[in-house]
Design brief:
With 218 residues, this protein is of the alpha+beta class. It has helices spanning 14-24, 41-50, 69-79, 90-105, 108-113, 129-149, 162-176, 183-194, 196-207, and strands spanning 3-7, 30-34, 58-61, 64-66. It folds into 2 domains: 3-83, Glutaredoxin (3-Layer(aba) Sandwich); 90-201, Glutathione S-transferase Yfyf (Class Pi), Chain A, domain 2, CATH 1.20.1050.10. It has a 4-stranded mixed sheet with strand order 2-1-3-4, with helices on one face. A hairpin with a 2-residue loop joins strand 3 and strand 4 (64-66). Helix 1 (14-24) packs across helix 7 (162-176).
């Protein structure tokens, strides 16, 4: 049975992007079920028909349903071990899980002040001290990973991993809001932007015509 991944708008849904990218970048077959966000009760009910959380993304594998981005990626990693979504080295794997969990639960100021919107005109905004601290911490994570594992490949742990999928939407945020980054952090961003799956998601997001006013901020 083919996996089903329920996602929201590619232009806006950073959480949907993460497991979508983990699947697509590893050529794992799945059926994409798109339900637009913030469009009314009918679409809300469609999401609820897949998961009682009422949120996307959601992964359906037969009788199994997973409704959290990081939990979905963990499930994919176990279901398809050949994808090597987590580093094989135990210490690197623990480190990758730690930074992924930090991304999953942290950086609220950056999320609030720099919402994901691929179609937003590129321009900087005045950021709070908390948002600037989030940006500094993310760059620190990327640079430390590249210093440790950069010889193994262009991504955070050499080859593409779950950690890269978790931080992929941040690449879009940094680009859209014209956030300056250190050269080592930029190298990681360039690697992500060169990933065919990342490019596919971006093209699809830019092609969407639905505009959600709550995301159309300066």
């Amino acid at each position: 049975m083919t996996l089903q991944l329920v996602i929201g708008n590619k232009n806006y849904s950073s959480w949907s992007m993460r497991p979508w990218l983990a699947l697509r970048a590893n050529a794992i077959a799945f059926e994409e079920i798109f339900i637009p966000l913030y469009t009314g009760q009918a679409d809300k009910q469609r999401i609820l028909s897949f998961t009682r959380s009422g949120k996307v993304p959601s992964l359906i594998d037969g009788e199994v349903t997973i409704w959290d981005s990081l939990a979905i990626i963990e499930y994919i990693a176990e279901r398809f071990p050949q994808a090597l979504l987590w580093p094989e080295d135990r210490a690197a794997r623990a480190h990758a899980r730690s930074i992924s969990a930090e991304m999953h639960s942290g950086f609220p100021a950056l999320r609030n002040e720099c919402g994901m919107n691929l179609r937003r005109p590129v321009r900087a905004v005045v950021l709070s001290a908390d948002a600037r601290a989030d940006i500094a911490r993310i760059q620190q994570i990327w640079i430390e990973c590249r210093e440790r594992y950069g010889k193994l490949g262009p991504f955070l742990y050499g080859s593409f991993s779950a950690a890269d999928a978790m931080y992929a939407p941040v690449v879009h945020r940094f680009l859209t809001y014209a956030i300056e980054v250190a050269p080592a952090a930029r190298h990681f961003m360039d690697a992500m932007m060169s990933l065919p799956a990342f490019q596919e998601w971006t093209r699809a997001g830019l092609a969407e015509t639905l505009v959600i006013e709550r995301f159309e901020t300066a």
